[in-house]
Amino acid sequence: MTDIKKIPFSVLDLSPIAEGSTAADALRNSLDLAQNAERLGYKRFWVAEHHSMPGIASAATSVVIGHIGAGTDSIRIGSGGIMLSNHAPLVIAEQFGTLDALFPGRIDLGLGRAPGSDGLTMRALRRRIDAADDFPEQFEELRYFLKAPIAGQKVQAVPGGGTSDIDIWLLGSSDFSARLAARLGLPFSFAAHFSPQSTLPALALYRDNFRPSDVLSEPYAMVAINIFAADSDAEAEKMATSQHRSFLNLIRGTPGKIPPPVDDMDVIWSPDEKLMVGSRLGGSVVGGPQKVLDGVRSMIASTQADELIINTMAFDHVQRVRSYEIIAEIFEIGAEQPQVLAGAQR
Questions:
Q1: What residues have CB less than 8 Å from 243, skipping those under 6 apart?
Q2: Rounded CA gap, 258 and 243, in Å?
Q3: How far apart, in Å, are the Cα atoms of 255 and each of 27, 45, 58, 201, 227?
Q4: Is 296 exposed, middle or buried (0-12, 13-18, 19+ CB in 10 A)?
Q5: Which domains does the chain have, with CATH numbers?
Q6: What is the model's pTM?
Q7: pLDDT tens string 146-174
């Protein structure tokens, strides 16, 4: 069994905009969370690209990463992820080349295939509806621009070309990116925080089909998970209802800012809605220290994850920071971690 105390823990932040607050508040909170994560010993801090979402402030993902990098010193920073189908690969190479120039040796480029938005938003981004179908080609184009320019190369990423410090990850919530990451010998991060039922099949595909590369000699899988940790089970369960309400609003077609927690979700959702939310968020770990310890142990035992990246979508920022503090205390995250990635990966 995997030794839980040798597994790095990281942070996935969506820069949540709570009801009664602004995007500016959310971005200040993201920096504060990153500074606390660095203090507590978390390995990396990722932000995610979402568009046209009133409750998420990280749409300009590269800009937010720069904001986080300027206020921290050592924690790895990056995207979890950039939705490549929304962008020209050259632009992403330039943006992350710039980030690497500003924060050398700290940048992760996590890439997703899904658009992270609806069709109307995709059209507003000036991308094709079927752009995700070209993801492998887009990805190879991006890697081309991140390589050292060859003689006579007319189009170059400046900064970006010849960058060797950026760690590239493939992200997924199904089997497509698992297969691609395996074929290319790249690290893979799975979105178990909203696709729990597909987690084990995708990880098995990745590991079974992995081909060693100059980046990795063996598979490296990170699993994203929702954790709500508090000093008591009841406090954690109430804290988690904000995420339940947010997802329920998406199901109902009424997305908004992150709502406050409630004592009883059964007065808000129908039985069918409860099942729908549970199908996406049912893998969450919610509770006091002992319940979180048991839940994370179970997750690691079932997935054999090499790393966990934790999302805590809480309404109250103080509670959110406290949740990461409790997790750090339980798993001794600040203790010295081994260097588990090979080659260019750190």
A1: 226, 228, 258, 281, 284, 313, 314
A2: 7
A3: 19, 25, 16, 30, 22
A4: buried
A5: 4-331 (3.20.20.30)
A6: 0.93
A7: 999 999 999 999 999 999 889 999 999 98
